[in-house]
Amino acid sequence: MSHPAIVKDNVAVITGGASGIGFAAAAAFARTGMKVCIADVDQGRLVEAATKLSSIAGAANVMTAVVDVSKTESLTELERAVRERFGGTDILMNNAGIQPGSTLFGEPDHWQRIIAVNMWGIINGSRIFAPDMIARGRSGLIINTGSKQGITTPPGDPAYNVSKAGVKAFTEALQHELRNTKDCRLTAHLLIPGFVFTGLTARGRTEKPAGAWTPEQTVDFMLARLEAGDFYILCPDNDVPRALDEKRMLWAAGDIVENRPPLSR
Ligand code: NAI
């Protein structure tokens, strides 16, 4: 791994870091000697996750924070606490997400919760952390976890689709802004996982279904694509031929063909 931000003693903050893709990312960063902060709403899982990370990186290099990403004050406090403990942030992975299912005419509060966690949490996390990350003047990464559903917007679960479409649009805007910021060495990336076997998708299953990826496979793929400089980190689905998958995404988002965010429309 040779991305200049993913190096020993740099600092990574991962929301939704107590399980699934977020935890796998935290473990991978910890293995490179980075200091990691996992932020999650689930305190019990945070404790378990911190124990595992401490065995990789040493307890002094692991921080946990109980955070609800839908709340501005929670994220503001997280940013301050990481600066106090580790001096600042080099990698922010805005990854916390929920998928409780939704219908078009479902309850407004239910829609608002999905959008508040999945979309506003990612937007607000980026807005709160980016200024200090830019000011640090170092190579840095903001990785936002989107979804194929935010690109192809298939029927069913409209609130989730809308939230993830918003993540895509915001991350493109963020990268555009960062590119146009003088002396800025921070870049934004949109992680678009395939079907990953996690608590989010298990739905009562205890065995990984054929075709699903593990969180670790997803993170390995992400690290390779970050090293290659991709903006869209489009994970293939094992059950969809790669060429067809890319074609499907290209149809929905022409930008992926160049793998860079649009500079002008
Ligand atoms: P997961 O359920 O294992 O992890 C999500 C984590 O987010 C959990 O630890 C949960 O406690 C935390 N979380 C939930 N609400 C939160 C809040 N308000 N504040 C802070 N933390 C909160 O699920 P997974 O699959 O690892 O999901 C990670 C991201 O990947 C999500 O954004 C999800 O939408 C996205 N994704 C997952 C796919 C999959 O197939 N698993 C496919 C496409 C996208």
TrEMBL record:
<dbReference type="InterPro" id="IPR002347">
    <property type="entry name" value="SDR_fam"/>
</dbReference>
<dbReference type="Pfam" id="PF00106">
    <property type="entry name" value="adh_short"/>
</dbReference>
<keyword id="KW-0560">Oxidoreductase</keyword>
<dbReference type="InterPro" id="IPR036291">
    <property type="entry name" value="NAD(P)-bd_dom_sf"/>
</dbReference>
<dbReference type="InterPro" id="IPR020904">
    <property type="entry name" value="Sc_DH/Rdtase_CS"/>
</dbReference>
<dbReference type="GO" id="GO:0050664">
    <property type="term" value="F:oxidoreductase activity, acting on NAD(P)H, oxygen as acceptor"/>
</dbReference>
<protein>
    <submittedName>
        <fullName>SDR family NAD(P)-dependent oxidoreductase</fullName>
    </submittedName>
</protein>
<comment type="similarity">
    <text>Belongs to the short-chain dehydrogenases/reductases (SDR) family.</text>
</comment>
